[in-house]
Amino acid sequence: MKQKVLEISNLWVSFEKNSEVFHALRGIDLTLYRKEALSLVGESGSGKTTAARASLGLVPLAKGKVLLLGKDIQHCSRKELIETRQRCGYISQNPYDSIPPTLTTLDAVAEPLVICKRMNKKEAREKAKEMLSLCGITDEVILNGRVRFSLSGGQKQRVALARALATDPEVIFADEPTSMQDASNRGDILDVLQRYVKKGSALVLTTHDLYLAAAATERCIILFHGRVMETGPSKAILKTPLHFYTKALLDALPGLDKKIKRPPLKQGEPNIIVSGCPFLARCPEGRKKCQETPPLREVAPGHFVACWLI
């Protein structure tokens, strides 16, 4: 039997600004199993990062439940929450803020090994050197230089990857882990992540790129303004996208041969109220029925879509 490592039920996350409430996540469900790679796909503001951070208890939940490694993150003690997080790895979208800038590159990766694995400093630095080599950083000057002065953005992202994976996490949350890499390094980073999945870790990858999601994960969830639009096997969604938003994401990717001509999207603001389809204002086929919230319906084995027209 497959072992669940993350279970999210009816998750709502809300933020208040200028006395107005914005719902970043609106009732999403998610289940992740050990040795599984799952991607959260959508544009900026779709809720991908919020979902990853909410899974770790880094943002307050308005409603719903998150079970991470068997622990209810809303109701476990601070000690239990820290112990649970130490079994996870988190690669932030912004490595500039997630790595201590005054440490050397080696010490930045060794630090979680000292704290979480109780290694002495020498052992931790040796392990850190192995991890950095795995992530493509071997230059002694860079290894012993301070993070603030020695690293480019792409190198900092790889250091963040090494730092997150050094403790052999059971669940990896990778937030746009290739966003600062050139094409030659992206594949290497995905290979490293997939190596850990094969060893037994579970992976949650956030990205706006459906091609990257299909290459790196078995299953993906398409998010738009906090709602699940479509979910299913990554390659099936890439080959046969069903929701109008999923099709729009594919059409927006550069360098593709646009043989399929689709109706243009409407110019409109997304529906940020609680009910109705959030994509209605931009959908070329929107109907009056779409003012009601569409349920996720299974249209093929394991492939679900939230659209009244499909």
UniProtKB/TrEMBL annotation:
Matching Gene3D superfamilies: P-loop containing nucleotide triphosphate hydrolases
A single GO BP: transmembrane transport
Keyword vocabulary terms for this entry: ATP-binding, Nucleotide-binding, Transport
Sample GO molecular function, one term: ATP hydrolysis activity
SMART domains in UniProt: AAA
Domain ABC transporter: 6-250
InterPro entries reported for this sequence: AAA+_ATPase, ABC_transp_ATP-bind, ABC_transporter-like_ATP-bd, ABC_transporter-like_CS, Oligopep_ABC_C, P-loop_NTPase
Alphabetized SUPFAM superfamilies for the sequence: P-loop containing nucleoside triphosphate hydrolases
Domain of life assignment: Bacteria
UniProt record similarity statement: Belongs to the ABC transporter superfamily.
Entry protein name: Oligopeptide/dipeptide ABC transporter, ATPase subunit
